[in-house]
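Quick illustration, no need to memorize.
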Amino acid sequence: MTQVVDELARRLVADTFPPPAGHRDSRADQGRRQALLRLRVLADVKDAVRHLEDQAAHAAADGGAGYPEIGQAMSMSRQGARRRWPGLITNSTSHPTHRPTPRST
């Protein structure tokens, strides 16, 4: 997966930030410029992925998934999912409150 994301970042750099016209950088300057642009693109990709994870977690919770399932899907613990998305699962939807039946006197 890392190689796929790296290739995507390299393509995004090439497509989004073409070299300045008529400007000739040294090899070192070109390498530094490409590395910094790749870093910028990867930071943007990370933000976009995090946003999409949030959307997917909300959709999963809306569909009835609990913190254990969401955590497992994210390769984290239930507690980790609860810390990442506090309040995502309400007690009324994930674990109905058990009320003891009243005793007759």
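The first helix runs from residue 2 to 16.
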